[in-house]
Amino acid sequence: MSEYETITVERAGDRVALITLNRPKALNALNLQAMRDITGAAEELGQDPDVGAIVLTGSAKAFAAGADIKEMQPQSFSDVYAADWFAGWDALSRVRVPLIAAVSGYALGGGCELAMMCDVLIAAENAKFGQPEITLGVIPGMGGSQRLTRAIGKAKAMDLCLTGRMIDAAEAERSGLVSRVVPTESLLDDALAVAAKIASMSRPAAMMVKEAVNQAFESGLADGLRFERRLFHGTFATQDQKEGMAAFTEKREPKFLHS
Ligand code: CO8
């Protein structure tokens, strides 16, 4: 595994990898190097057949307090437009194994957007989410206006993006932004347990679930249902479908080969 400046990367149990944001002095603010590190590590891990799920986490105080304001401040329109600032994050959405965001503390602006690029969002009780870009005279630039609206609906998304207010973990769960809220002390263990559960399933099946659920955001219902059905048919070409169904009939636990 390569060396990274802004993150640490490690194996955390069977078939699970853990990426930890590591810019504590800047509350894990996401500079361009962090974008390169996170997307590079996730792409590399996603291609490893021995990795079935990736957990992305920050510190107890901050998952990430946004894009790096100090790095952005001197940029001109021409700079950010010509470099297509933030387009590099799209690489994270192309990672095909499930990504789990374990959010403690602040997930603001780009931090909230990074969490929303993940597939499962787990929040600690102390988590705070928001899109405060408007308070800086800008707007979300890493998908906030799009993914937040799809996740929690227009009314709440408008409220958050227009006022810049933060919501706590309970409101985030009520709104459908996160799937679980867990005690702050056990966040990482709980997230790793979810990742281990996912990673124990058939890897191709988990990848197909991710692809099929994400397709719901891209197509109409009839096309989405057809897409899902074709993937479902495809599972019958895997060894894991044979094993999973045989294990059920034989009343035993499946031993998936991830192929
Ligand atoms: N960028 C850079 N540095 C940051 C950031 C950030 N987003 N957030 C915190 N820091 C730094 C602080 O400057 C401070 O550094 P220093 O010690 O050198 O002064 C250090 O982290 C600790 O922060 P605080 O002292 O502020 O800690 P507090 O506990 O008092 O406050 C907060 C924590 C409330 C999280 C506060 O730091 C804060 O409000 N941060 C900014 C949150 C924010 O506005 N995020 C959105 C950023 S914009 C964005 O993500 C997308 C913009 C899209 C633009 C599109 C352009 C193409």
Automatic annotation (TrEMBL):
Keyword Manganese in annotation: no
EC number: 4.2.1.17
Catalytic activity: a (3S)-3-hydroxyacyl-CoA = a (2E)-enoyl-CoA + H2O; a 4-saturated-(3S)-3-hydroxyacyl-CoA = a (3E)-enoyl-CoA + H2O
Keywords of the record: Lyase
A molecular function (GO) term: enoyl-CoA hydratase activity
Assigned protein family: Belongs to the enoyl-CoA hydratase/isomerase family.
Name the record gives this protein: Enoyl-CoA hydratase
